[in-house]
């Protein structure tokens, strides 16, 4: 009996070893070390060129990475263009203003010339974001790679916490993706290099919740400054920095701003006021090293959401189009 049990266990172990690489290939740092050695250095070089030309690329890539991962997982479904038969994610209202798709195209084109159909678009987003964060003074961190690209992109699936969400509602949305309240507060710190269209916060400046007055939680000088930035015409939707001090630097200044009631978006101000998040906000505001440490952990966690690995998905030749 024991002899037969041993044979069964040995056979099961063999089957497990054969099966695992096909279905559960884990993300790992240096995934392309053998298959495409120049992958990470190529991405870094192109991102650096773009950063020199326009430092706001960091904000754009952070938003792209977050918006991609939060829908179907980090599978580059956000990059797919719409067709006559399908409205893709990128045209959804919540993705208004997303940019730097051309930068991803440029990186992909360069990598296809060096290592055809090897580096996924999903990994390009994650690595490009990492490089842009480092260039903007943020933490330099390792990105586990090995993601594959998704086969589905639908605009009607896009459902993201909005700028007027409460802390509770935002926390529920993050929890549904396996992310903690800590992750949420730290990832919102990406707003340190962000900007927002006036349409996302105009009500806070003059008619908050139909009161006919500005949001009492916004410092008066900030109200006046944003009124000048946005103007009175709703036909022109201007933008304002979410951190008006170090607008192109990934640091903890955002938290100092919201503690001083200079948060631009309602959710920014809410995390500084809500009992569930205010203590962490206070800690991050006084310790830039802690912010960088926590940001590294949170963004790596974000990058692992529902990734496709092994034989799942595909490696797109063109990030905008599924392989034929």
UniProtKB/TrEMBL annotation:
UniProt cofactor(s): Ca(2+); heme b
Cellular component per GO, a single term: extracellular region
Record: residues binding Ca(2+) 2: 192, 243, 246, 251
Location(s) in or outside the cell: Secreted
Binding residues for Ca(2+) 1: 68, 73, 75, 77, 89
Function: Removal of H(2)O(2), oxidation of toxic reductants, biosynthesis and degradation of lignin, suberization, auxin catabolism, response to environmental stresses such as wounding, pathogen attack and oxidative stress. These functions might be dependent on each isozyme/isoform in each plant tissue.
Protein name from the UniProt record: Peroxidase
Organism per entry: Spinacia oleracea (Spinach)
Origin organism lineage: Eukaryota, Viridiplantae, Streptophyta, Embryophyta, Tracheophyta
């Amino acid at each position: 009996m024991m002899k037969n049990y041993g044979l069964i266990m040995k056979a099961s172990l063999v089957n497990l070893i054969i099966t695992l690489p096909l279905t559960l290939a884990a993300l790992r740092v240096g995934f392309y070390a053998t298959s495409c050695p120049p992958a990470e250095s190529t991405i870094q070089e192109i991102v650096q060129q773009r950063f020199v030309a326009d430092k706001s690329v960091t904000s754009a890539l952070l938003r792209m990475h977050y918006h991609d991962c939060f829908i179907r997982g980090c599978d580059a479904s956000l990059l797919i263009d719409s067709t006559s038969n399908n409205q893709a994610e990128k045209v959804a209202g919540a993705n208004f203003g997303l940019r730097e798709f051309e930068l991803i195209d440029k990186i992909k084109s360069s990598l296809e010339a060096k290592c055809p159909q090897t580096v996924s678009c999903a990994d390009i987003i994650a690595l490009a974001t990492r490089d842009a964060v480092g260039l903007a003074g943020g933490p330099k961190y390792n990105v586990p790679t090995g993601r594959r690209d998704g086969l589905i992109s639908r605009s009607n699936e896009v459902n993201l916490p909005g700028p007027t969400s409460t802390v509770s509602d935002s926390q529920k949305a993050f929890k549904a993706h396996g992310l903690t309240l800590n992750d949420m507060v730290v990832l919102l710190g990406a707003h340190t290099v962000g900007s927002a269209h006036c349409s996302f916060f105009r009500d806070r400046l003059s008619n908050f919740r139909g009161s006919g007055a500005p949001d009492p939680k916004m410092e008066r000088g900030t109200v006046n400054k944003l009124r000048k930035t946005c103007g009175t015409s709703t036909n022109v939707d201007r933008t304002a920095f979410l951190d008006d001090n170090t607008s192109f630097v990934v640091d903890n200044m955002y938290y100092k701003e919201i503690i001083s009631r200079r948060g631009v978006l309602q959710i920014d101000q809410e995390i500084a006021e809500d009992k569930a998040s205010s203590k962490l906000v206070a800690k991050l505001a006084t310790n830039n090293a802690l912010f960088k440490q926590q940001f590294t952990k949170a963004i790596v966690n974000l990058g692992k959401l529902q990734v496709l690995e092994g034989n799942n998905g595909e490696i797109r030749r063109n990030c905008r189009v599924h392989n034929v």
